[in-house]
From TrEMBL:
Its cofactor is Ca(2+). It comes from Rufibacter hautae. Keywords: Calcium, Hydrolase. One of its GO terms (molecular function) is carbohydrate binding. Pfam families: Glyco_hydro_92, Glyco_hydro_92N. This is Glycoside hydrolase family 92 protein. Transmembrane segments: none annotated. InterPro entries: 6-hairpin_glycosidase_sf, GH-type_carb-bd, GH92_a_mannosidase_put, GH92_N, Glyco_hydro_92, PNGase. GO terms for biological process: carbohydrate metabolic process; glycoprotein catabolic process. Residues 295-759 form the Glycosyl hydrolase family domain.
Amino acid sequence: MRKLLLFAFLLCQFPGFSQKPKYDLVRWVNPIIGTHKMGHTYPGATAPFGMVQLSPDTDTIPYEVNGGYNKDVYKYCAGYQYDDPTIVGFSHTHFSGTGHSDLGDFLLMPTTGKLQLNPGTEAKPESGYRSKFSHNNERAEPAYYSVQLDDHNIRAELTATNRVGMHQYTFPKSDEAHIILDLMHGIYNYDDKNAWTFLRIENDTLITGYRQTNGWARTRTVYFAMSFSKPFTQYGNKDYSKAQVYRGFWRKFDQTKNFPEMAGKQLRAYFDFKTTEGEKIKVKFALSPVSTEGALANMRAEIPHWDFDRVKDESQAKWNQELGKVRASLPTKDDYINFYTALYHTFLGPTTYMDVNGQYRGLDQNNHQAKDFTNYSTFSLWDTYRALHPWFNVVQPKRNADMVESMLAHYDQSVHNMLPVWSHHANENWCMIGYHSVSVISDAIMKGTYTGDANRALDACVATARQGYYDGLNFYMQLGYVPEDKNGSSVSKTLEYAYDDWCIAQIAQKLGRQDIYQEFSKRAQNWKNVYDKSIGYMRPKLSNGTFKKEFDVLSTHNQGFIEGNAWNYSLYVPQAPAEMIQTMGGNAKFVPHLDSLFTMHLPDEFFKDTEDITREGIIGNYVHGNEPAHHVAYLYNWTDQPWKTQERVRMILKKQYQAAPDGLGGNDDCGQMSAWYLFSSLGFYPVAPGSEQYSLGSPAVKDATIQLENGKTFQIEAKNQSEKNVYVQKVELNGKTLTQPVLNHSDLVKGGKLTFYMSGKPKK
């Protein structure tokens, strides 16, 4: 029954299927994909790389319960869960696909009837302002979302430009119509997360203010300007803060109703209207990292009118322009939906983080002016260095160069003299491991995408890699590995540091800086220090030089790894696959070992307590739902059995990506999971960003054309393509047969044609 309902939903979303779409690529994108279970995507309205992500939130799960972490909150990293029957409201900032969270700023909710400022509960939505809804009355497209709020008989529609969200609420006839602005609401929320909130009623249609929070980003300030299309009749607020000892002389006023300033830690405001049947009230809500003046300027620049459909059409035209960078012909309707939804997901972030005049808040909490670049935020680098930023080097090189420039601005503003690790909204949150900005920077320099001061960039990479007090780096530099008894997840850190060091060495070699090249080439060999040849796996080593005795190669807990086990992480030497394979016994031993990764059974006990992985994200013991093994299927290309890369890649594409709400096998992680899909569907993948080489696989497209920014095109064609014909018999680049399963980036950007000849039998 569920599959029938889903099929009906998809037919409704994507009418008029034709075998090869031309220009309206928006129709193939289904933002609902990934909103169920572990995908952690949001379905709401946003522009490409937009600063506003205007989306529904379906519950108010707190981060903390009884002084401890509330595991249920994990489902709400994007604010929305497909299974939920109610909507709390529509907030303006969201992450896409993350495994931790923040944001959910400035929630609006239209209501009718008696004013209620409490959101209520899922079990009793009538006890608050939330509303029941049905997926039958919900629609999600790029830059557009709509839903019927059943309890209030209101149709809510959302669209967005880069910095401004636009709401359109169709009300019934009512003398008690309200729009609630909840400044307490947030994602991964807790009582003390709000440091302060402030509102000014500028006139009967315009409100300005800001919100300061202490969460994942511990010092975050977001400014806003909100404009109504119709004057409100009255307004007010309720402050849910604990009573303050000192209230000053503000106590002489009744600040709860029709008082033009509101300030406090826990505010909910309301604005009342009288509506006729079918009347539309529109709201423009602009954000700024700098000031309310900046928010107003953003609003005036991006939406100077009240035409909701015009905003939607213009934003969707921008999406069509971005999606048109890759024109693919695919075998089935579901393939079109999966492909263009993945492409959409890769263009959601990193997000713009500056006003229309180029001003932005920096890591030092001062205001800065971006000169000749767009400043970006939301760098989930442990995930996105692997495929998302390399994907940008193909289809968004100018944006990726600006992202590198944004990282270097972060470095300039950092008191730690470090590039970003995981940063958003003028904050470093230090999430995950490694210093993978250097991978992004190296890849951009080596592929010619970043044309700024490469020596300046290299200096920033080196300073980051030498910052000893960062996450075991002192031990790593002294011992050649991170010791598990001194610093946890030690093997993962050692392996990832070694790869990052190799990236630094590549830049140094290109720039002729031999001292740096020698230092970091040597450091890049440190992966060997945690390989235990007696068991054939990477293994945690202690500070006395011995390997940890109690050790389980399948467990993900307290074994020296993060988001992975020894099986997966032992294959993480992307900078030197051939040397790794030789170290592990050569083809004769390595190939059966790699085979077993995909075919063995991983008992539930080894991942049942892992928050972000369920059985759907696992094939054998290959964990596609987490990133450390994303390159692993391509390792057969360094053995004498490369056809196994072809069959594994096509298997993963089929099993881990579905045109359904639960169609992602794990967190999309700011587009990394989707970037893997796109590269692999086109037939090549960046195993080691920082190298200009892509490893060839098995394309799932019939053909595709990439529109390069230099005006040229690169075409991929798969002759004799079918679901069964997953094996490659021959590959030609511009008519010349390739002798190795490798494509060079320098050949790709020249334009041309890559032709795969497919078959149902492997070429041995």
